[in-house]
Amino acid sequence: MSALRIALPSKGWEEVTLDFLGHCGLRVDRSNPRQYRARMRGLPGGAAEVVFQRATDIFDEVNGGTVDLGITGYDIVAEHRSEEDEIVVVHGELGFRRCSLVLAVPEGWVDVTSVADLAEVAVELRSAGRALRVATKYPNLARQFLYDRGITYFELVEVSGAIEAAPMLETADIVCDITSSGVTLRENRLKSVAGGVVVESQACLIGHRRGLLSDPERLEATHGLLELIEAYLRSRQQVSITANIRGESAEGVARRVLASGVVAGLRGPTVARVFPKDAAAGDWFALTVVVGEDVLLAAVESLRHAGASEVTATQVRYVFEQQSWTFEALKRQLYGPADDKTDLEKTTAWSSS
Amino acid sequence: MPSTDRPAAPIQRVRGTNDVLPPEDARLRRLEANLRRSFERFGYQGIQTPILEPLELFLRKSGDEILARMYAFSHWNRRLCLRPELTASVMRAFVDSMQGHGLPVRLHYAGPSFRYERPSRGRSRQFTQVGMELIGAAGPAADAEVLHLACAGLEAVGIKKYRLVVGHLASTLQLLAQLGMTDHAQGLVLDQLEPVARGRLDLDGAVARVVDRLGGGRMNGSGGDAPPGLPSALASLPPDQATAIASDILSRASLPIEGGARQPHQIIQRLLARANRPDPTDQVRAAFEFVAELRSAAGQPARLERELRPVLEKRGLSTTPIDEVSAALGFLQAYGPLSDEMEIEVDLSLARGLRYYTGLVFEIYVDAEDGPLQVCGGGRYDDLVRALGGREAVPACGFMYGLERVELALGTAESPRPPRVLVVGVDPDDHPYALKVAHELRSVPQLIVEQDVRLRGVKSALRYADRATIDLVVIVGRRERDDATVVLRDMRSRQETVVPRGELVGVVQRQLA
Q: Are B423 and B450 in contact (CB under 8 A)?
């Protein structure tokens, strides 16, 4: 019996990660909040072992195989990946901790609003015998991004501590750093430039390739984890609506409701006969349908048009489909190249739905 | 490390690199030697330069496309790289220590180069360039020598069916200047010519990419922090006055121009210059359309006059490139006949992946199973010596083969294997005697003589001889030492004969003849 080992990010990431797992139905227990070890309940095959680590260290822990899975930032994965590593991205979009790696220049550079301007400034500095100095903790991503945009005369500056302060301290000219709201950039009198987004990032789940391949029990626990994550993410912003509608037959009610368009639901409405307390009230049907939160009021309105009286709406907690597409994608990553094209299409279909 | 019984995990070789195993290694070395031998007959001398170079060497003139694919790194605060090609290295060596030599200097070289690209058939991340440079000679006579050697080298190693494509970059360079493009914009266009020529990018895509890198098609008043129209209003004033007003406005708006490395007046001037710059889209499109027109006029050398001359004349461009290509091809013929199966194509749109070329450029293709395989490329680069810090401009021209690609083009025809003999002592005591016998056998030219050194006896040695496809085994024991004889076993026929030691060399030569 081997328990799944998973690394979760500590420090500023901890609360939001535990919140996310809680929503997925996974509870992390530990004897006190300063413990680095804990157990996570809610997966098949028993509790998983949890270790809390800094998000930047989790990549190495997973790559080295001391844990099977880890939650960290996509930016960190993109920076640290190599062609021959042991990492598989198990789920790339967990939907929290969104941020961007951007190029930012001093506000005083009023002539620089785009990456193309930056390229010219690099040329200008070069002819003055200087290189554009870029402070960053993401040297691989920054270098590739600048090269790809024709900026070749630059120097990456390794800064310990606050990257954003580097231009003010004149240890660098510009920065390539993570931002979510842009507040820190503004406080340091920096501005982002058009076309200067290096990577859009959010939390993601990564796994150790060989570890998952070699242990069917851990792989099965991973399957359970993905089912829950995927069903939770799919359920967000979905509401389940139940309405009582007067009508002549179930088919007639369904036809009227479908014709209104808005309340088609995930596949179509469920219509069931209601047996009213008062037989003189006529024929009534209960209709259940799942719609997006953003169209809730429109859906209610069209149901009223279709003859609905009482309408209740509840938040949906999970939406499961006939299988976990991310787990199928993981298996293809683990067991070799995909030869089943239809499966791939399905994988992309759900993420856009 | 604690010792365990478990074997250590094997080390994988780096992706995109290859181990060259026997007999492949011998084949490649022979091929390299044959290619370089043809250069030596024309007075070229070998040169070796380091694989490790300062990154700066390739930043100067190689072009952005190659820079993005370099193995570059920082080692103890020095920016270094693995060389992506050898011409820049050879020219650095020339500038460093050969500037005083009588011109022309003729050099040839071979060695590994590194590019971080998607590995595929005929493309590894480490590959071997074999090439030459003719330094200090300008004009068609020098170009023709380089062209001739590129073709003759291939023919010397057995490639007779190939296509030589000759171009000239001066027409494109002149057009870009005529269009009034900045150096930066010209470089961006030049970098995209190769992807366009190879069909990796269409014309619209190329225009969009260059315009995007130049800041898009909306230059006027696009300064995000300045009110629209203001820069153009300022631009009508004398520069000093405009700068003063702009600085004033910006400081009133609490946007102090503290550029760190950049002076406030530089920032303001660039802001104003940018506002006055026209939308580059039309210029860039005109450049790519011109190149496309050159491409459609490409073909047999006879088309130079009929098709290409009017294209250049129509735009008021110099026709010198046509004259130079014609003259070089004329001289090339005078070197003597090349293979009947080779073809020459003239294509003035030909662009190489490197930015330092200035004049005639060329590539050689061989048809392979999966399409044309480029085995050779080169051209004239008259500005590189200055760019690398040379005292004066020195014209130069050269080319390089991709050794592995030449081999791929040749196919894996089995070359004759030299004969091999193994000498075995029956006991360890017999080893010194066996060594003397082996020494005598090595006087036979071409013969490879191996010595049994595992000393595990005749049976074990014969087993090895079988697996290693040895032709003859010479066995010596106490009896043979006493009689001054040896036992000669023919591994092909399994026959053994006793041969007097004095006659051994003669007998071996006869048996292998």
A: yes
